[in-house]
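chain below, 274 aa
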Amino acid sequence: MDLLLLLKAAIMGIVEGVTEFLPISSTGHLILASELMNFWTKEKSDLFVVAIQMGAIAAVIYEYWSKLWGAATGLFSGEPKGRHLGVSLILASIPIVLVGLTFGEKVKELLFNDVTVAIGLIIGGIIIWWVEKHPPKVNAEEVENISLKEAIYIGLIQVLSLIPGTSRSGATIIGAMCLGVSRKAATEFSFFLGIPVIIGAGLLDLAKSYHVYQTGEDWTVFFVGLIVSFVSALILIRVLVAYVAKRDFMVFAWYRIVSGLIILLFALTGWKLW
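prediction:
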């Protein structure tokens, strides 16, 4: 067993768990971390980057089980709040499912690189900065207050997250805030919206490419990353919910802009960190 490879998988799991729900692009950070650590072969690493996100989303299901169960059963029992949240999540998930199934492979082929990540980080950072400087009027304080029309718009905005560096969390949270959703409700809705998208993408990629993991060691490396991403994401979720109750996302805007510029500089000059 290659202990260094397991350590790299654990680090990738931490990167995923910490970045998945922050507006800074988990996929972008995983791509960069993979390149910096020379993590695995490209084929195995690309599958790892997508599939490991299921560990982070499992943390959402664990943390919000009661509310999510209410949304699922509300679709059939008719409980108003649960039904409304369930329908909202379904409507918001449709656009990215359709676009992802149609263009997902082409996006990976063309845009999974550090230059795209850098540009996505910078543009997203500027948008977050502008929204925080010009906060819209809040009309939906809780996640159950998000209207079906707003849910559809948030779902359309989420399609942008197929571009590495954009950030699914960043697109959905900031997009929801622009529509008048409170920061807390936007963050929770983004958590929930990731469940069908990330689990669907992860399972689809595993079904298509599971053969690239040919040995027990390959699968051990994968599950180490998955478990570590679950634990680190669970911690991050609790910290982030407490954070957004008192603070804005301006620090993430500057982080995106500065890190994007640094990545772009290294990418365009060919410089190496080591």
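Residues 10 and 224 are 6 Å apart (CA to CA). The chain has a mean pLDDT of 90.
thats it, cya
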